[in-house]
Specification:
four-stranded antiparallel beta sheet; 9 strands
């Protein structure tokens, strides 16, 4: 990670998974090749770039910022070690007009079992 300052990022990829960003969507590819596309009502804009990660190693995590097109995050090629994760956002204060509790978003319970090309 390029800075030692704490940042708030969303963990989107877990150990053993790959993350593919293409055509404005983020797809998680599991170790068994099943996959699902993230539903992301919280992002400012869909990502305008493409990226595919390596298989995420044990104790490493792929993170993305909500402002996808202006966020220094794992699509620059770095991961976050488990021991660098220091907490969870419980409240949002920016922008001021949208103050409120931090939201938890769940993803689909089932995943697609076809191969990703």
């Amino acid at each position: 990670m390029p800075s030692t300052a704490p940042f708030i990022k969303r963990i989107v990829g877990l150990p053993g998974e790959k993350v593919e960003i293409k055509n404005g969507t983020v797809t998680i590819i599991k170790a068994d090749s099943s996959h699902f596309t993230l539903e992301e009502p919280y992002i400012r804009q869909a990502p305008a770039y493409s990226y595919i990660s390596i298989v995420i190693p044990a104790n490493e995590y792929f993170v993305l910022g909500d402002n996808r097109n202006n966020s220094e995050d794992s699509h620059y090629g770095w991961l976050v070690s488990r021991n660098e994760i220091i907490g969870k956002a419980w409240i949002s204060i920016w922008p001021p007009g949208l103050w409120g509790g931090g939201h938890n978003y769940s993803q689909p319970a089932s995943v697609v079992t076809t191969a990703v090309n």
